[in-house]
Structure formats: structure tokens, C-alpha cells
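Predict the assembly for these two chains.
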Amino acid sequence: MTEGLLSIRGVTKEFGAVRALDDVSVEIRRGDIVGLVGSNGAGKTTLLRLMCGLYRPSIGEVMFHRDGETLQIDKLRDVVGVVPESTGLYHRLTAWENIRYSSRLHGIPDDVAWDRTQRFARALALDGDLMRHTRGFSRGMRQKTALLRALVHGPEILLLDEPTAGLDVTSARLVRSLVQKLRDEGGTVIYSTHNLFEAEKICDRILIMHNGEIRFDGTPSELMASTESTTIEDAYILLTQDSAREDQNLEREGWFARTWRRFLTGSRPPTVEGGDDDE
Amino acid sequence: MMSDESRRSVRGLRTVRTIAGKELLDFIRDWRTLLAVVLVPLLMFPAIFVLLPLFMSSELEERQALELDVEIQTAVDAESISNLTDAMSEELFTYEIVALDSGLELNDSYLDNDRVREGSKDLILKLEFEENGSIWSFYILFDSTKERSSEARSRILGILFDWEDGLVEQRITDADLSPAEVLDPLRWGGGNSNGDVATKGEQAGFAFSLFIPMIVALWTASSAIQPAIDMTAGERERGTMEALLCSPASRFELLLGKWLAVTIIAAVSVGLQLLGLMFALSFLISADIFQIPEVSPAAILLFLLAVLVFAIMVVAIVIALAVRSRSVKEAGSILAPLLLMFIVPAIFAEFINLEGIETYWFAIPVVNVLLAMRELLQDDIELAHVLVWTISSLIYAAGATWYASRQFLREDLVESIA
């Protein structure tokens, strides 16, 4: 049986009145490539941020297992490598300086970091651009640099938030092949994506999220079998047919900000000119 | 062997240094901020001391070269005021003498107002002579909002007073008296010495204490704002904060790293400004006007300490407020009014009399450091004052740092508008 690596147990996450995650439980095993699939506002990013310790659960716990010990994930930042959706690169620094900054924060000597970076950069066809400022980088180059930065300290789990969003076909393929290479080497990857076919192609396991809940957890073939669907898309639609909530991205406002916004915009929605407005 | 605690401390210090180093590298790569924080403060005082006098002297020359058009209204004949009109010609006046309406008071001049207001005459001088008392009366019509008219008034008053001096001397002589004995019965007997026991250096220290503390305080605050915003709200806006928070650096180490970088930038900026001032005083200004203040090494060290504890507090406050903002614009809106929090006490502190000052003044935030700098520039080290402002400033700095560390624990720090 594969060793358990990360346990998310009964986690609920609330932001004020908004419940972003509702009683979520997931076990991540060493060597898993898990696809986190869901629409905007499903709770994917919130779950990823809980997994890397950026958020603390309102209820429940996120625990990491190592050498028979169970530890809270926010005490173990070294084990996680994260590629956030926005990539988070400093545009006045070169790609290598961005990576080196991260490696130094992890306490990795520069020569070790350079060797690791070179190795992965060759796989991503970025080795010739490491000394360039990231200001002029394309979306794909930025994403690859962020991936190198996340890998430089040799994390045990890699969390990727929409890693291929906005990438051209070639770059997306390179990123996918790197993930597959990591799987072959026994790495664990949590891969958040909108793209069902991509998830089906590279993930051993798919988690379908909707309205802050896990609607499915299993292999792609189990997904289709359990929903009696012929395609993964049909299965997804079937599991998420209730309407997606729309309040996830609501900005959390204080009393003054809310009152001021209502004063400026009015509390009622606009009406179509000439339409019924007899209230 | 190193204990776990020592190892953690060493690693923490290395993390803080790494963060500060990256922030400084990022900062110096942006030539615009570099210009604002390095070049501007360095050149500010030399520019003020060189360009301002040049500009003022050129303005003065321009004013002095103006040919002004004056009307003299008087009932006396031109010969009686020839001394006056000759002096006016020398002072670049063109004048016209017209008859004074003797039926009106001198200041009853509403008909002439418009001509001065419209600029057809720069000035109208009315002169009247009372035969009985041998007294001249004069009245000047001018427009204070017009440069030519104001200049004409200034010049004409000078000429009139010289003319008056001549008349006085003439009358004293006519009465067989000595003008020198009558007009100057009490004289300064010290020759060129003005009797001030304060040295030039001490005088310079006193003069500097009236404006240098305010400039240093305001520059510390304003030079900290831009980098603090860039390193906090800017990080959130660009979406780099999330990746940074995923690193093993603790939130407090992040705060300390950024705080250290902003403090270094603010300190370098203020240091360059003072360097520029010293350069201007040493090489650009005559020693007769200003000298470098005579301040003991102890006072200089305490002055630097005052700037440092002030910077610790200011930078912590600025970072704490900036990190709450999700964009540079939002942070700018919050921090721009914050400068008033420093400007108002800074101006207030300039007017407080330092002689016999009560010790509690040295415990009031911002004011305490300003007063300390004023005292130190006058080379006045009072132990009780030093203790009060040092301890109170450190308490305020610790409070501000604690508040900033609370802000860095916020979960919404990862949220970005990127």
C-alpha cells in the first residue's frame, strides 16, 4: 500500500460569511498525481493554499506525515513547492535571481540550486534564458520559471495552480511532460486545472470540486464508471449540474466600504431602460 | 556544538539578510526610485544653495533694471525739489510733475487710483509743503499686487528718506549744531565685533536646529514611503507575495527583512541629504554666512541614534499600513495623509523653547525626536532628556513593529489583484 503523505481531515474554511470549503477530507499518497478540477469559485485555490499552509482551516486539520510522525503543514514549508496562478516573479530580477532568492530562503547553497535549476531548465527548454530579466518573458516562460523556483529546494509535494493556463501548445506540453517526469521519479503533484482532458491525460486521480465540496475522488475510469458516462466531460457535468455559487469572489468589505459602495452605486441592480420597474 | 536554538537564530538572521538583500537589489534596478531616493536628496541642498541665490540675484537685477514711470503732484516749484528729482533720475525713474489740487487732502485720491491700478503710472507721489512749520508731507499711491509698482514704492521711499536725512542735516547745521552729535549721541564702541560670545560654529548649530530636524524627519518619512509601498502593497498587486509567503521564512522574518531594506534606503537617503548639506556649507557658501556647526562627537552619535530610532518607528508604521493595501494606489491613498502626522508635530517642535523645557516633552511621539535633534545640534546633551527620548522612542518603535508584525499575520496577505 502507498504511504500517506498529506491528510486533509474535515476541513471547512470560512471567510466572513462566505464558506469557501465545506467539510473537505482528502488523503494524498506519496507518488500521487492528483488533478484538482472545478469551475471558478469551486474552492480549488483555497484548498491549495490550505495544503501549503497559507490558510489555516476554520474547522478540521491539514497534516503532513513524515517518518511515522504527523505534523502540521504550516510548520513544514520545506516539503511543499508551489506555483501560484499569478506565477509571482519579480520582473526586475533575472529568472535565475528569482530562483536563487527562493532557494536561499530554503537554505539551499547557490551551487546546488544552480545544478538543480540547470537540470529542470533543460527539460523545459529555458536553460538559455535563465540570466534574462523576467520583465520581457512570455506567459509560458514565466510559468516555467515559477515551476523551476518551486522545484529548486526538492519539495516532496508540488502544488500547481493552473500551470498551463494561457500557455501555447508547446509550452503546455513541456510542463505536462515535466510533471510526468516527476511522477516517474516518485514525486507527488497536486495539479489544479479547468482542463478535464489534461487532467485525464496526466493525473492518476481526479478530485472534482464544486461549491466548496469534493464531488468525486478517484481515477478517471472510476469517474466514468460511477457516473455511467462515456466521456469525462459528461461525468463532470453530471456531478456539477447544480448552479455554481457566485459569491466566492465577493470582496470582503468593512462597514464603511460597504456603505460607501451602496451610496455610490445604489443597493438595487440596474434596470433595462423601458423595462418593468414598477416596484 | 551549536544548539537548536542558536541554529534557528542563525538561519533566521540569514533569512532576514536574504530578504533585505533581494529587496535592495530589486530597488536599485529601478532607476526612477533610485533617482528619487539617491540623487534628489544628494543634490537638494547644493541646488538650494547654488541655484536659489543665483535665481534671486537674477530676479533682483531684473527688478533693479526696470525703468519706472512716476507722477509727482505738488504745489511747489520744481526747483524746490530738485534734489529729489535728481535722485529719481539716477534711480531710473521717468517722472512728470503736475499741479497738486490744493482743495483736497493728500489721501483723497480716488481719481488717481484707477491710473495706478491700470498701470498707466507705476506710482503717484503727492508732496505738500506747509510754510508755517516748514514741514513736508507726502503720500504715495501704489499697487502692491504689481511688481513694477511695488519696486517703484521701494525705491521712492529710499530716495525720500535720504532726502529727509539731507534736510535734517541742513537744518541742524543752520542752527550751528553738529549733525553727528545731535543725530548720533549713543554709538556702538565695539568696532567690527558684535559682542556675541557664541562662536560661529555654535551660531550655525543654533540656526540649523531651527530647520534641520524638520527636514530630516520629513525626509525620513517621505523616503520610506515609496520603497515600503513597493515592497508590500506592490508585492500584493504584482502577485509576488503569495509565492514569498509559501517560503519557509516566517512572517516576522519577512517583516524584518523588508523593514531592514526600507530602513537602509531611508537612512542612505537622509545620509546623502546631510552629505549634500555639508558639501554645500563647505564649498558653496561663504564662511561668513554659514559655517559647519560645532557639535561634539557624542552629540553627533546621539543625533544619529535619534534619526535611527525615529526611522525604526516610521518604517514600521509605514510598512504596517502599506501591507494592508492590495494595490500601490490604495497604499498611496492611505500613506500620503500620514505625512501630515509628521509635518504638524515637526513644525510644532520648531517653536518650542528649549531653555528650561519640561522633560515630559521628550516623551511625546515625533516631537521628542525633533526636540532631541534640536538640542543635539546645539551641542546640548542633557542626560535626563536623552534617556527619556531614547526609551520612549524605543517603546514607540517596538509598538509600531508589533503592530506591523500583526499585519503580516493576516491571511488576506496572499490575495492579489494580479
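The radius of gyration of chain B is 32 Å. Chain B is about 65% helix and 5% strand.
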